[in-house]
Predict the 3D structure of the following.
Amino acid sequence: MGIKIQVLQTKITPPNLKDIILQRPSLMKKMKTIPRYPLTILHSGAGYGKTTALASFIHDQKNMPCWYSVGTNDDDIIPFLTYVVYAIRKNHHGFGTELLLYVENIERYVRDEEIRTLCSLFINEIILLNKNVMLIIDDYHLIQHSSSIDHWMAWLIQHLPMNLNLVISSRIKPSWDFLTSMTVKGELLELKQRDLVFSFDEVEVLLSDLYEGDMTDQDIKKIFSLTEGWIIAIGMIRGQLSSDGGLEAILNNKSKSLDELFRFLAMEVFMKQPPMVQQFLENTCIFDELNGKVCDEVLGIRSSGEMLKELSDHNLFLLSIGEGQYRYHALFKEFLEQRLYSTNERHFYNLHIQTARYFQRTGDFNQAIYHLEKSCDFERIAEILHHYGEKMIQNGQLEGLLDRIKKIPESLMNHYYLLWLYKGEALRYRCSYKEAEDCYIKAIHFAHSAGDLEGLSKAYEGQAKIYLDTIQPGKAERYLLQAIEALEENAASSSEDKSRVYQLMAENLANAGHANKAKKWYEKGRELNIPLLDGNLESRLFLRTGKLVEAKKILIQKKVVEQDQKTVHLQQSHRETDLLLSLIESFMGNGQDAKELAESGIKQGVQFQAPFVEACGWMRMGHAVQLLDKYDASLAIQCYETALEIMDELNVARGKAEPLMGLCILYGNRGVYDRAIEFGNKALEETEKVKDAWLSALILLCMGISSVHNEKWEEANKYLTRCEALYGNCGDQYGIALTQLWFAFLYYHQKDKESFNGVITSFLNKVQVGGYDFILTKRTTFGPLDLYNVVPLLLDAQKEGIHLPYVNQLLNNLGYSNITSHPGYTLRIQTLGRFRVCLGSQEVEESDWQRGKAKELLELFVTMRHTLIAREEIFATLWPDHDETAAARDFKVALNALNNALEPNRVARSTPFFIQRIGSSYGLNQQAGYQLDIIEFEEWIHAGLHEKDTEQVIKCLRRALEFYEGDYLPNRRYEDWCISERERLQVLFLRGAERIAQSFVQTEEFDEAIYWCEQIIAKDRTWEEAYRLLMFCYYHKNNRPQAIKWYKKCVSALEDELGVGPMQPTKQMYNLILQHQN
């Protein structure tokens, strides 16, 4: 009999895109490859946006694919084939005429051989089209159970004509056995559920921009965590927000706010399952992760593994997370748990109790505790934590431990008293010292009452660690002695416990400045043959005894081991490896390295929620930035003040000593003496209170240095004398060497030759023995502000024959092997953005120049720095309107004023040091060791332009571009003699800024790239590459209107300035943006 199927056009018409649609580059990139594959299968569970993704894909195709949206009534071969034909006929008129005639006259029941005939007719008609055809079949799972359709599809796919691309979208991946072979041959593109899941960034854009939601970042994070990127759930939650008063209401009352979602789940998934599957789903929903074994063991059934695989294969919101391992989608799990609890509360609790017992038997205490919490069995939780809490701390599970302990009633805490100890430990690691101390006190009380010497010693040890963490050796010693007493009284004490506490005692003695006593306790701990504590004790002992190279070596080795092993890291307070290394690098004059390590310390503090560590990072950052070439005092002050604020919040007064010390030397170096001494006294008050002799010595050294800089000779002598005595007691040879250096400066300025000779001899001896050459070759925290400050001292030592070979070597390394005098400072000249001259750290004021032409003369010498300038050329350049006699007179006056400005203390009629004269030619003395910003700018620019590694390019060019504060000699912008140099340097800036912008594009730091492109255009509005980069950046930031605006600005600038249009690459970029916008 004839068969006539009424075709609904809506089923063969591709869905329209919504007004609000999120561009998903990652997904679209994969979908763009669909035309390359004969077969594409897109499969995922309900609500993951398969249809929307396909609609978006179709929207971008030049040739419209054929679309067929399957319905539940299409589960027979005849209606199915009819719709397939009409779907293709919509784009290819007249297709399938012979096939439809055959279908219309076929019997309702189609035999197997007829299925193959139908398939052959279809294939032949596709080939006859002689055009490429793409057929998309959506919701294929609705008819997947039909054996006739499945047979026809399998036959078709195995004989696909070259001009047909078939795309299948389904909730369940078809089980055809030939799919594996097609994958291997590269004939199948498979898009899975994970490809459709929305990433966090996509959820953020969707909720914040497209839905125009007024949400915080925290709200978006919570929605993402709850939905796991499931778009239908995200949309439903978004729909509930306006009526329920925000996300918190939904999260706190999920069963109410997600009713619509749960009804969907129940209707679409749960209620359609057989009763046995429903029961299995309810019984297994309590597991965070599932496998066949755990389900069989807990539920007392068999074959759970097969059931789980079947559910996962059918995309029943059961996600495969590994071989035989699964987990429910978060929202589906929530639905199942709510249903189980509401329908059978007793069974819900019993399941959790049975599961807890299983995990306790298998040693998975985290899971056991989780299920006991669900069943509100806090006594069993306390019992487990009493024995398992220490392991959780060692594993870094501080938050989990605290959260669980907080739920346990105090009466149970008092019975299982080690919980007080563990809570104290967790709080101490989080720098909550007052709350931690309260917990330790309770642990001590209950352990003492129970006669538990081991618990007692650990509680005393914990309390001591509070004062070790905050470097209060006086207070820590009392509790350490009590911990040792309890340990040694307990015959069952382990060697590991004894070694640990002995090493803590050694650390505490090192903190107090008793290095020799510390070494004895350290060796006592090592004799027990137990691995050292992870507290960098040995390196800290080296640091506090002046063995900086050895300390640095140990810390670097440890850092390498930590990175290789990737072990769980518990914060170590001020003992963090990066924090110690940062301090050592500052002491050794490696400012950039110290800065990077301090940044790492700050990040660690934030990551570990350890504000004391973060504060230490800020104070070390303050030390580091003072050593950088481009140093801003306000930045260092801000670092120290941040550290002080955190210490105030923590109520740890001792922690203020180091940042106060930093402020002392900072203000002392700047000549603000009273403030420097005020900060020094405040710092000293804290260290003397806790008996930290070593840090007290450092503070006194800073006060002594500040006094020398400000010519307070009597006060300098007083502070340095106290400092030297403390360093002697601590055994710190580095500290003693520094003290002697500043004594040498003191005696040199006081012209006390005998005392000078004594301390300079001792200083040079300690520098050679201790390997402290860096004090004289690099700017260090406690060394001279200007390295050339030491040259006059070395020249005097040379005259006296003190350590002559070494002194000659030092002077030779500094480039001064043949001089008899030196001004004792570096001439520093800034030319970019402004003209500024400093003698060491002292700026030459306007009044110091005496003559305006003196400054202009120096600017000319700087511009022509590579050569000496003939006197006549100087006349013609600076005094073009003067006759030779007048020009010579004015030149002589200007030159004399220049020499006086640069060397105000030069002995009369002695040869100038910085300005050189050879015959009748003049210029800068190339051997004078002056610092010129344009030299450093140029060196770093060229280093960055020639570097291949992107990270190194950015580092080099950042340093270079910091120097470019503006154009060269802006006050001489109209002088012909500096135009060429100004333009040359500006081009270097533009090339450097372009390269760093390109590098930031490579690292996808688009905001940084935009900043530098805008800087380029501010200097040269015709620099076309900057416009291209701006367009590219805004395009990738999904801000196409801004990208188009920059193209139009480019067109306008090129036309106005050069009368030309953009280059082809710029036009291509613009066309690409337009295509995606459309």
Remarks:
- Residues 201-360 form one domain.
- The longest strand covers residues 164-170.
